[in-house]
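Hello again, I could really use a second opinion on something today. I've been puzzling over a protein and I'd love to understand its fold better. I'm sending you its amino acid sequence along with the backbone structure tokens. It would help a lot if you went through both lines with me. I've dropped the whole record in just underneath, so have a look.
***
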Amino acid sequence: MAHKKAGGSTKNGRDSNPQYRGVKVFGGQHIHVGSIIVRQVGSSFHAGANVRTGSDFTLYAAESGIVHFAEKARGRKFVSVIPDTAE
């Protein structure tokens, strides 16, 4: 005789981890080489001076310096890093 009732199964027992997207470093803040500036889907922000784009559209700093956000032609938003003058 069974001493436990059958548990059955469930169809909704899974959950995925969040993506943690968005702007990580804001304008005027100091950043180091390789640090992530923006995690995004598609190119909401475009890479400006001293900024590179990763394979998943992540923007990261190619130089140490101050982060600068600007809007240019056709409403495109660009992110640049202005290098430190002390180095």
Summary: The chain has a mean pLDDT of 91. The CA atoms of residues 56 and 71 lie 22 Å apart. The chain has no helices and eight strands. The radius of gyration is 22 Å.
